[in-house]
Amino acid sequence: MIRFKGFDFxxxxxxxxxxxxxxxxxxxxxxxxxxxxxxxxxxxxxxxxLRGYEADLCWHKVxxxxxxxxxxxMGDWDAVDWRDVFEKNxxxxxxxxxxxxxxxxxxxxxxxxxVTITEDRDSWDYILSMDRLKDPESGTLEQFRRYRNVxxxxxxxxxxxxxxxxxxxxxxxxxxxxxxxxxxxxxxxAANFFENGLLFVLDSWDAFPEAFKSLYGxxxxxxxxxxxxxxxxxxxxxxxxxxxxxxxxxxEGINEFAYxxxxxxxxxxxxxxxxxxxxxxxxxxxxxxxNLSPLVMLRKYTVTYDPAAADSEPVVHTVAAKGLWISxxxxxxxxMVALSGRLDTSAAPGAQKEILGALGDVTELVYDLENxxxxxxxxxxxxxxxxxxxxxxxxxxTLINVSEGVREILDLTGFGLILDIx
Length: 422
Fold this sequence. Notes:
Number of strands: 19
Number of domains: 3
CATH superfamily of the largest domain: Gcn5-related N-acetyltransferase (GNAT)
Structural class: alpha+beta
CATH topology of the largest domain: Aminopeptidase
CATH architecture of the largest domain: 3-Layer(aba) Sandwich
């Protein structure tokens, strides 16, 4: 079993090695954020964060009151025998939160019905392209560009680098905006971090290991007053997490200007993407981040482990081509195929091989198209080929949860009248 215990600064380098092996790195598990949360929660008798190493993975357990949940383990996910690891280390009924999409799908493939996966939209991270954001003139960011210009044209501003020289100004800024943060964030854990995380960094700077001192960013000042700041945590040579951000909303366009300036400066550093973290379910924050034209969403899920429910064959999951995910669950002679992303011309050959090759003795085929954004003529041919094979066996094929965009294509092509859509 995993031996969970507390951790300190000295464990940062070891944890970072495991983080670097992971295909997707959620903002919640950055070295700084998770350590800051541990220090902050130590002051709360009802909450704690513990860490353990087992099966060449780094695990975290969050305790709050009489309850607990585990965070997604970090490491080389594809090198793990997940069935063996879960049987030896994970108690039945364990709930995991903050599980990135790649790992959730991998668990479905390896563990089948032993895991139940639930979408956690409020925790999804926004990954921004620096090239796209630094040059909004060439993209679709019209509103973003307009508000950025409003700030540039209406305020005389100066920029100061993040360093110990500006710590007092940041403390003052954070103290002034604490009440606004509390009123806008309903999630207590998120609010706790936003209120206290930056103050923890400022107060602990002299004791920080070098891994944490790679933080960098800037302050934006108007009339010698800090009106916004951005502080990034470097993850590797090309990617960072925008761990700390603050702005005074009374300065019109300040948010757009701050994100644009951050993109411009990051691009000059060779940074390709910035993870600006989740929107914690706050509607205005979600609208703003969605309007930044994210390169991709880092989707996260809640996963519950119940080995007693594993009465079906494991889910087969693969990436057929860029932009398409296939999940297939076979129970007896029934096959459930869930498609997400785009089933276009480039994805179709791989998808056809994967799906038609799995039909075997299947006599009941169900396509779940809730997350399929687009289907091309090549994709439609796969559906027709599947239907023909089912009919040859006197079997059935059904389409469920068909997305609006895909349904429109089916109706326009006439396939909506041929296929059984429920």
